Amino acid sequence: MKIISLGAGVQSTTLALLAHHEEIEPPDYAVFADTVWEPKAVYKHLDWLEGHLNFSVVRVSAGNLKERLLTEPEFAPVPFFTDTGGMGQRQCTSNYKVRPIQKFCKPHASRGNPVICQIGISTDEWARMKPSRVKYIKNTWPLIDLEMSRNDCKDWLKGRGYAVPPKSACLGCPYHNNAQWREIKIEYPEEFEETCKVDEAIRVDDKFKFKRYMHRSLKSLRDVDFRTMEEMGQLNFFNDECEGMCGV
After folding, report:
1. Does 198 have pLDDT greater than 70?
2. Can you give the pTM of this predicted structure?
3. Looking at residue 233, what is its pLDDT?
4. Other CB atoms closer than 10 Å to residue 238's CB: what's the count?
5. What is the pLDDT of residue 208?
6. Is the per-residue pLDDT at 234 higher than 80?
7. Dihedral of alpha carbons 235, 141, 134, 172, sign
């Protein structure tokens, strides 16, 4: 069996549409691992893909990441910034992206016949290419084989008459730079307000010796002026994301 790991961003959308147009071999399924914390525009785009592609889109989920952070503030799979000068351990990609897809794939594999998982990593992000951690899945990277960069993906989409999809990433991801935070605040004000509530919730538990923040300034998210604050060496989201499952 063959699947596309569908993040519903630029690269994985291009990958799915390449398969739809049979420019690469179509998969059996495109699988979207849903954290239930993406911008509404991403879900709207995903709905469109489900109705457009000539193969099935399957949504899998390990639960609502935002709601768990709100109801269990001591639960911290997201690598938030801390007032000790570091970041928490990153477990969100593994728990909410990788494992749901693994769970979907495992029944479809057999000894010597792993599920082929096509991942939308482009040539400008080649460092994110990693083999699967489980024997029943084999990762492949068709955009690398086609020598397509992120900009090549955008050009291909426009050339086919498709709109460039919105960026796919959890609303509360601490790897957002200021431009991305600014876009969320302006384009998705209601969702930004909900994200601010999560940012405040992760600091209410007195059991921790340190405080956690979504923004590297160590300020409440609603108090950051994204228009004027310098990036101060903001971490590169793509290069740090080791599984190749987020932001594509």
Report:
1. yes
2. 0.91
3. 40
4. 18
5. 64
6. no
7. positive
Rounded average pLDDT over 181-203: 94
Residue 107: the pLDDT is 98
Write down the pLDDT at residue 232: 45
Q: How many CB atoms lie within 10 A of CB 157?
A: 17
With helix as H, strand as E and coil as C, how does the chain read? CEEEECCCCHHHHHHHHHHHCCCCCCCCEEEEECCCCCCHHHHHHHHHHHHHCCCEEEEECCCCHHHHHHHCCCCCCCCCEECCCCECCCCHHHHHHHHHHHHHHHHHCECCECEEEEECCCHHHHHHCCCCCCCCEEEECHHHHCCCCHHHHHHHHHHCCCCCCCCCCCCCCCCCCHHHHHHHHHHCHHHHHHHHHHHHHCCCCCCCCCCEECCCCCCCHHHCCCCCCCCCCCCCHHHHCCCCCCCC
Would you say residue 242 has pLDDT above 60?
A: no
pLDDT bin (cut points 50, 70, 90) of residue 235 is very low
Which residues make Cβ contacts (< 8 Å) with residue 117, sequence separation at least 6? 2, 3, 4, 5, 101, 105, 132, 137, 138, 139, 140
Structure tokens at 7: 């993040």
Position 176, amino acid:
H
* Band of pLDDT at residue 230, cut at 50, 70 and 90: low
How many Cα atoms within 13 Å fall on the side-chain side of residue 194? 18
Residues 6+ apart with CB under 8 A from 145: none
